[in-house]
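User: Okay, second chain of the day. Same drill as before: sequence in, C-alpha cells out.
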Amino acid sequence: MEALLDHLHFRVRAHPALQRLAVVSRILLAVGFIPPALVKIQGHRFTTAVDLTDPIGAFFEAMYQTGAYWRFIGWAQLLAGVCLLVPRLTTLGAVLFFPIILNIFVITIALHFTGTPLLVGMMLLADAYLLFWDYDRLKAVAWAPAGTAATERMPAGMPAHWSHLERTGYALGTAAALGAFLWTRGLIPPRLLVPFLVLGLLAAGMVVAAWARALRSSAA
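Assistant: Same drill. C-alpha cells below.
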C-alpha cells in the first residue's frame, strides 16, 4: 500500500495541470479565510443579516458574545490562510486548515444551512487534495518511519520551469482577490474596488497567456 501511494503521489505531483490546481487551491482557500478572519480579530460580527431567533443566528451570536473565543477563531483562520500562501509553510497551512473547515462543514450540516454545505464541502475537498499533495511530508503519521520509501520531492512553491508571466499572474491575482474580498467586509475603502477588479482581469489574462504559451511549447 505504501509503495502504491508513493507512486500515485509522484504521478500526481508530476502532472502540470495538477500542479496548477494545487497552487490555485491554496490561493482560493487563503482568500476564503483571511478576510473573515480579520473581521473576527477586530471583534466584529461575521454578519448582521441573521435573525437571532433562528438557530443559525443564535449560534453565531453566542460565539460572537464569547469575545476571546471569537477572536481565537479569527487568528486560527488567519494563520492557516497566510501559511497557505507561503511556499515553505503550505503543508502547515493545509494541516491547520483541515480541522477548521471540517468543523465549519459539520456546523453547516447540523444547522441546515441552504447551499453553504456545498461551498464548504468543496473547500474541504480542496484542502484534502492539498494534504495528499504533501503526502510525502505527512505519511510518517500513517507509516512507521523505518518503512517509508524514498520518493522524489517536488518544490514547495511553484515549479522552476513555470514562466515569470504565470508566476506574476498568480501573485497579482491573489492580491486582487484578497482586495475584493476585503472590500466586501468593509475593510478597505469602496473606491479601491475598481483597481482591484482591473488587477484581477490583468492577472487572469497573464495566467491564460502563460498557459497558452505552455500548451504551444508542449505541442511543438
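The chain has two domains: 2-159, 162-220.

User: Thanks, on to the next one.
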